[in-house]
């Protein structure tokens, strides 16, 4: 289930009261400052040490096993934790991560009547389909996890899909794998453009969360039939309302990405955005096998996820690994040590590539073709 951030909302949107906007904007400024000014000093401090310079050289040489990389990253984590500016920068990151979630809930509750009125207002439908399965079980690997430090569960809050408070904080970038100054909306379109073919007719996004990425897919493939699947019923309901309002015809289906309900060879392209780091490696293997089954011969998969440790410098690897324990991303470490290219080849995909589109390895793209 990909985290969906509404970065397309007008920063001056009236669906947040001024007092909440002010608090969220302060958090956004703190995030920007920590990820630029503080982080640049922390990086310099790290590389100025003899051990840090040695770790950086060894990591840059590449050709290391996953175990060697893990050992090197752990040594870098211990070194970084001894540096005061790095500790301060990480403290600010953690504070913002916790506080923005709570403030987002407050901002939504302040506008509860507005959101309920919006939901009750009829819209001219786009002809899409919403397929909900309230009995769909949450997978075992979700147990006890509050992804991204969210104070409510997947479907435990009736307004969980509302509000744009998180987008206000994140619009400057500088969180998790996203470098400061990133334009997430433009990056999504750029990643969608990594499909090799320009005439895909049926495209499925796995772990869609809502429709923000499907809107990007529609920009690149305006004639394609769009399908999105996710386990989060609240996100699908909210996404479907938005799709109907903006005239985007989509099929949204509540299901596990390991069992999409699509027929063998029925899909031309499969897309995923910020999904695979939220599940164990073995679960991802099951997802890749399902994708292989539903793709037609010549069909493509394009993945955008945080970069592997091997693809970034050692200090960036420290920042990525931090999310595993401190931003409630329990599978970040194992997936950043994994090699999706090798996993896709093992299943039978060909023309497999992994590469970065921007600085610091982000967005990281993995793409492949079913023969």
Task: Sum up the structure in keywords.
single chain; 371 residues; alpha/beta; Rossmann fold; eight-stranded mixed β-sheet; 47% helix
Task: List the SSEs and their pairings.
Blueprint: H1 18-48, H2 50-61, H3 66-81, H4 84-110, H5 112-120, E1 129-131, H6 165-170, H7 184-192, E2 202-206, H8 212-220, E3 225-230, H9 233-246, E4 250-254, E5 267-273, H10 281-294, E6 295-305, H11 314-326, H12 332-337, H13 340-347, E7 350-356, E8 364-369
Parallel strand pairs: 1-4, 2-3, 2-5, 3-4, 5-6
Antiparallel strand pairs: 6-8, 7-8
Task: Please sum up the structure shown.
This protein has a single domain, classed as Rossmann fold, CATH 3.40.50. Helix content is 47%, strand content 13%.
């Amino acid at each position: 289930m990909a985290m969906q951030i509404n970065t397309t909302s007008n920063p001056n949107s009236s669906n947040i009261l001024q007092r909440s906007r002010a608090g969220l904007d302060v958090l956004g400024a703190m995030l920007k400052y920590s990820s630029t000014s503080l982080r640049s000093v922390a990086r310099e401090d790290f590389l100025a040490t003899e051990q840090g310079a040695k770790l950086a050289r060894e990591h840059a040489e590449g050709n290391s096993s996953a175990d060697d990389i893990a050992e090197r990253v752990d040594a870098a984590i211990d070194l970084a934790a001894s540096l005061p500016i790095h500790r301060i920068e990480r403290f600010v990151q953690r504070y913002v991560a916790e506080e923005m979630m709570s403030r987002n809930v407050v901002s939504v509750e302040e506008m509860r009547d507005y959101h309920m009125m919006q939901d009750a207002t009829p819209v001219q439908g786009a002809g899409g389909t919403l397929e909900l399965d309230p009995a769909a079980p949450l997978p075992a690997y979700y147990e006890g996890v509050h992804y991204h430090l969210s104070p409510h569960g997947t479907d435990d809050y009736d307004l969980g899909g509302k509000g744009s408070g998180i987008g206000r904080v994140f619009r400057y970038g500088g969180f998790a794998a996203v470098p400061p100054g990133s334009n997430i909306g433009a990056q999504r379109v750029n990643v969608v453009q990594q499909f090799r073919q320009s005439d895909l007719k049926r495209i499925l996004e796995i772990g869609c969360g809502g429709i923000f990425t499907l809107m990007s897919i529609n920009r690149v493939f305006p004639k394609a039939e769009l399908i999105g699947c996710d386990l989060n019923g609240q996100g699908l309901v909210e996404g479907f309302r938005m799709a109907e309002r903006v005239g985007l015809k989509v099929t949204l289906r509540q299901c596990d990405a390991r069992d999409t309900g699509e027929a063998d060879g029925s899909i031309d392209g499969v897309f995923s955005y910020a999904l695979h780091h939220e599940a164990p490696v073995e679960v991802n293997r099951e997802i890749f096998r399902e994708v292989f089954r539903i793709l037609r011969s010549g069909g493509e998969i394009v993945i955008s996820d945080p970069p592997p440790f091997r693809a970034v410098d050692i200090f960036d690897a420290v920042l990525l690994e931090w999310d595993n324990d401190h931003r409630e991303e329990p599978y970040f470490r194992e997936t950043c040590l994994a090699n999706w290219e090798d996993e896709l080849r093992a299943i039978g995909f060909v023309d497999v590539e992994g590469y970065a589109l921007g600085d610091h390895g982000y967005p990281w793209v993995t793409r492949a073709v079913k023969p």
